[in-house]
Design a protein that fits this description.
This protein has 224 residues and is α+β, with helices and mostly antiparallel strands. It contains two helices and ten strands, in the order H-H-E-E-E-E-E-E-E-E-E-E.
Length: 224
């Protein structure tokens, strides 16, 4: 508006000094003032648009920084997990040593098909965790007719999962569990109710086989 006032002042001066009808000059000044007002309004609108654009750019730069941090965190996460996934711990063993069972007896699967990482002791029937992590264990039992079998997956003398198998006929069943084991914690399968009968069938390569298997799914750091 300062420029418009200056223009108005100059116009008044010109009106007083030039031999032209004052009414014509006033009309000209009015038109110029209107144009100046419109120009100032346009400048203000442009200023607002520029400010909005600058704010959008600033916001976009913040989002880019956040994306960079997220990508960096993901790269670190995947790199760590790829390194951890290179560690393979897995076993599968068959042939139960004692086909009858007593309360508290560890069921020993004495014949390993494989024992990657040597974490399973086939002489004692006990798995010892070489790393803190999430492990998957599975046991397949083939039971003779009219026999009952009570068992538990045990971690350092604490029963983690319990089960019961009974069938009037010869039958097989599978028990599976996931367990978080700390470094050097031990897991085994234990009989929870005595049975003097030969409850487990001897392995038959063609039709059935008692097995115990386990594998490390994922290593865990700083587990409480």
């Amino acid at each position: 508006m300062g420029l418009a006032i200056l223009l108005l002042t100059a116009s008044v001066c010109l009106t007083a000094s030039l031999p032209v009808e004052p009414q014509s000059w006033l009309s000209l000044v009015e038109q110029l003032l209107k144009k100046m007002v419109r120009m100032e309004l346009n400048v203000e609108a442009m200023h607002k648009e520029m400010q909005q654009a600058r704010d959008q750019v600033t916001s976009g730069l913040r989002e880019v920084d956040n994306m960079k941090q997220t990508v960096g965190a993901l790269q670190t996460y995947f790199t760590d997990n790829i390194n951890k996934s290179d560690t393979v711990i897995a076993f599968n063993a068959h042939t139960i040593v004692n086909t009858s069972s007593t309360h508290g007896q560890v069921i020993v699967f004495s014949n390993p098909l494989y024992n990657i990482g040597s974490a399973y002791d086939s002489g004692a029937g006990i798995f010892t965790a070489p790393f803190t992590g999430v492990y998957l264990f599975s046991a397949h039992f083939c039971i003779g007719s009219a026999n009952s079998w009570y068992y538990a997956f045990v971690v350092d003398s604490k029963q983690k999962i319990k089960g019961l198998h009974y069938n009037a006929n010869t039958d097989c069943s599978t028990a599976t569990t996931t367990v978080v084991l700390k470094h050097n914690e031990r897991l085994w399968i234990e009989c929870t109710v005595s049975n003097t009968n030969d409850i487990f069938l001897n392995d038959n390569k063609t039709y059935y086989r008692n097995t115990f298997s386990g594998a490390l799914l994922h290593r865990v750091e700083n587990y409480p």
